[in-house]
Structure formats: structure tokens, C-alpha cells
Design a protein that fits this description.
alpha+beta; 6-stranded antiparallel sheet; Chitinase A, domain 3
Length: about 250
């Protein structure tokens, strides 16, 4: 199998605009009742078994460990109600994070087999290295042990965000060449569920703060990148304002 069921689902969710969550799963228009054949229990079971078996084969091929009870719960909710208990934004973030891990593993394997592909991440990595060296030498720049860099535009006040907190942020993300890959205004995010580099920065920020954060590839999307807008081993520049921190109990 060239592409797992999971990867196909994630690609549809992230790039195809599939609506997943409280609003329900977007489905193709149903055929008129008069045109449908009566449901056959054994055929329906065979369809369900085939879906489950194909999903597990794909997950295993991608090296993804799954809680099977939770997987079954998700499938059941999709079939019975079309509504997810996670909500659309959280589901999207979790699938994007999982997809990033799968892409990285595939790219690592491809590096050994494809010299043409290998040249691109190597070139991007050198560009990233040069950029971070230059940024780190600028006045006011801070470089953390992980390689994440930032410059404080406004410090904010109060205690920093914690992993379990929900934060309200506005941000604009660009690549080193200035291309925008993400933008949001007053977005609600669970700190623990964002990419490692953004998570580390948020856990140092205070409400009302505005930072320019530079995230090296190993703390962003790494070798796997993120189709179609972030290539392998690309650094990210994020101008982020943290409006509010909603503390966990």
C-alpha cells in the first residue's frame, strides 16, 4: 500500500477542507430512498471489516500505535452521529501532529534511497543554519538550548502559560523567503497540542505578550515538512500575540 488510510484521511482533512467535528462530517449527498437497495447485514459487516482491516494495515505500515478502543469509539461516532467529541479544531491539530510524524519517518527512509530528494532537505538545513546564526547575533535576540529563538516585542504580564492551558492567540507564520504558511486571529489552542517549538515558546510567554519566534526545523516539521507549503527542514518565523491564558483547574 503506497499510502495508508490514515494518511489519506489526514490529507483530506488538512488540505481538502473536510469538515470534521461538532459540525459533523461532510458527506456526499445521499441517493434518494427509492434508489437504494435494502441493507444486508452480512454485506454491511463485510464493508465494516474491510474498512477496519485496511485501516490497521495502513497504520501498521506507517508505524502508528493506536488505542483500538478509542479508534472504535471514533468510528462509531462518525457512523452513528457524524459528530466528534473532540471538536473540529482539536481533531485537526491532533491529526496534523500525527501526520507530521508519519511524514518524517517516510522522508528519513527516502533520504537513503533518493539522492535528488536528499539534496533539498540538505540545502534547506544549511539555509536554516545560516539564518539562525544571523538572527541570534541581533540585538535583543534570545536563543534557547533547544535552538528556538525569539525577540520580545511586548513582554505581557502574569505567569507564563502551562502545557494544559488553553491560550487565545493571533499569529502570522512565514518561511525564510517571506511566504506565509499560516495566519489566525483570536485562535484558541491547547498549549500541549501545538508543534514542539511553538509549545516551548508559548510556555514562556505571558498574557498580553507579543514575540517574534524563530523555530528551527527540528522543533517544527523537521525532515517531513508539511505539504504543500512547508518543505523538508524549513525554519519557521512566527509573529505571535498571546491575548489570554485560560488556566486548567
Amino acid at each position: 500500500m503506497n499510502r495508508s488510510v490514515l494518511a489519506a484521511a489526514v490529507a483530506g482533512l488538512v488540505f481538502g477542507g473536510v469538515a470534521l467535528g461538532v459540525a459533523g462530517v461532510r458527506r456526499a449527498p445521499a441517493a434518494p430512498a427509492a434508489e437504494r437497495e435494502p441493507a444486508d447485514a452480512d454485506t454491511s459487516y463485510a464493508v465494516g471489516f474491510d474498512l477496519g482491516a485496511s485501516a490497521l494495515v495502513g497504520l501498521d505500515a506507517d508505524g502508528v500505535e493506536i488505542d483500538r478502543d478509542a479508534l472504535l469509539e471514533g468510528l462509531t461516532d462518525a457512523i452513528r452521529t457524524g459528530e466528534s467529541r473532540l471538536g473540529p479544531d482539536r481533531a485537526r491539530r491532533l491529526l496534523e501532529r500525527l501526520d507530521a510524524k508519519v511524514r518524517t519517518r517516510r522522508a528519513e527512509a527516502r533520504m537513503d534511497e533518493d539522492p535528488v530528494f536528499r539534496a533539498l532537505p540538505e540545502r534547506n538545513l544549511q539555509r536554516s543554519h545560516d539564518f539562525h546564526a544571523q538572527f541570534g547575533a541581533e540585538q535583543g535576540a534570545v536563543t534557547l538550548p533547544s535552538g528556538i529563538q525569539y525577540r520580545v516585542k511586548s513582554p505581557g504580564q502574569g505567569d507564563p502559560a502551562r502545557a494544559g492551558d488553553t491560550v487565545v492567540v493571533s499569529f502570522r507564520g512565514t518561511l525564510l523567503d517571506g511566504r506565509e504558511f499560516a495566519r489566525a486571529d483570536m485562535a484558541e489552542l491547547v498549549v500541549a497540542e501545538v508543534m514542539p517549538g511553538a509549545r516551548e515558546a508559548l510556555m514562556k510567554m505571558r498574557a498580553g505578550g507579543r514575540w517574534l519566534v524563530c523555530i528551527p526545523p527540528q522543533r517544527a516539521f523537521s525532515l517531513g515538512g508539511r505539504d504543500p507549503d512547508i518543505g523538508p527542514n524549513e525554519s519557521l518565523i512566527i509573529d505571535v500575540t498571546l491575548h489570554e491564558i485560560r488556566r486548567v483547574p
